[in-house]
Give the backbone structure.
Amino acid sequence: MTSKDTWLRDPLDRPLLFSPLLWCAIIGLFTWVVATLGRELSRRAAIGASLTILLCATGAVLLQLLRWWADYQETSVSIPLRLVHAAAAMALAAMLVTDLLLQHLRTANPQWSHDHNDLSKLGRLRRRIEPGESSRPGNRKPTHYTTLRLAARTRLSMAATALAAILAITAAAALPHLWARPTTELSATPPSPLPERPATIGTRIAWDQEIPDVVDITTTAAGLAILTTGGITTINPADGTTLWSYQRPAHYGEPVVSPDGRHLAVRIDGPRGVDIGARRNSAISVTVVLDAITGRTVLERVSTTGVGAPLQLSDSAILDDGTALSLADGSQRWRLDPESGTSEDDHDCGYHGPAGHASFILDCDEDDNEGTEEGGEQWEERAGLSLVPDTDPTAVSRAHGILVDPFRAGITVVGGWTAQDTGRVSGETSASARREAQAVSLDALAGVQDQADTRAVPLGATAGLNSVASKASGTLVTYPLYDDVTNEDIIMQDPRLPRAQTIFDPSRRTAVAASEDTGLGSARLGVVLSNDEGSLSGQIILESQSGTAQATIPLTQGGTYLSPTNLAFRSKGANQLQRLIGEDPGLRALSAPGATIIALDTAPTIDQGSYAGEAAPRTYRLVGLTGGEQ
């Protein structure tokens, strides 16, 4: 939408006196008042005033419909408030014009003005007492009128007429909102039972396809969810076929998948300048929760926060804008109370992602770190969490020593599990002393007794959690210990240094050393060059840390916007998964149910300017690798 259309998209940013809708209402009401001041209303005056009111109402209705359509075209978000304003303008105009016509009829028929049984008048209806008829019993005062009792058929006719007018205006306002609905197409039946993530990386190329306008890629219990500017599509990782698609062109935020992988939530950027509640002119968004297995819309609600605001999902609820909603029926479970000190502003660490199976992260902060200023402290970063069951926001539990990624910061939760400092120290000298860690369930930390797995799995001494490898593999991947002299700059510049030490699989409750791991958590990924009969060719290499599994994907000249030589130079060989803040994710790997997915950016990234700091759409070549052990 161009800048000249701003008056349609963002009308409430201007002062109220400059609102066309307000002036349409003022002109219509003023015309009605002037026309009804006199005792008599001529035909010409009635027609002129009615036309003026109808023109003003038509302008107001068209203006609101154009604004609604402009918002919907740009954001795919239907704002019912626009349609309600249009319906109110129609109802007001109908009432005023009807009143003018009735007044004109009374003027043209003087006997009607004194008729007490005129149905168009407000108040109790009366009729003249016929000769010989007594007045109401018990009334000592003589009277010429008595209460008019309408027949049941007349009452029903009047009620039906009023109801028809109300329904007509309501339908006129509701139809555009009901029409503007995204569609979900179920292309194939998901496999039953649902496949699990393979314990070993895939080595056989099962399918290969290129998908444009990709905003993000994630995995669910059903398969690979691809978020594009046109909607969300879930494909079967085993063969690349489409399971379902949710068609809704919009600007999407980062998706969130529930710990059990059965729900997917995402924010859609809404129009600006809409008055919702007390936050006038604030940025709004629409939160959508889909059934990740079928694509069915589970929940949709308007939030008074922007598209980048955090979301959390448990298996049965969503925490959105300080409100917990049930995924079963969309009902509100609870809302954080600002007056009790549990407002979303007081309890918000910006965590965006899956929570526990039955718990939420209410607050987080940085724990007091122990260590020397020159060496130990940079590898001792820990966080403190305030957790609550997803059914009770008052049952707050506090957890300390939660591991973070020292290179990217932030909390990592996979399958409802995270890593925590045990308080025990390994090493004999202060220079080599490091705290040991363990994998823990968020539900156990939150005190959810019904579903919590209270067992803690030792992970050994570590520098922190590798968030990129953890999210890509669906496991908790810890960094190895780094010497005090191996500072952050050296690790950033040398991707050959190890990035994985222990891999914990939440679904199997097992932890293995990286040297024994055959999965994606510790695997090496990159682009390398090979000399094929005197000519250089590139290929993507994915190899397990144990060396027992390897996949090779050939690259063709011209198949990407960078040559294989440039890709190999940027990749610096095959290395363990990690991506630093601000680093281009041109090559990615994901562990999906039944397959390992390789994603290669094949086209230049479009201008980021229109995406307000969010990731711009990309064109990805997706390759499905099967053959891994379950």
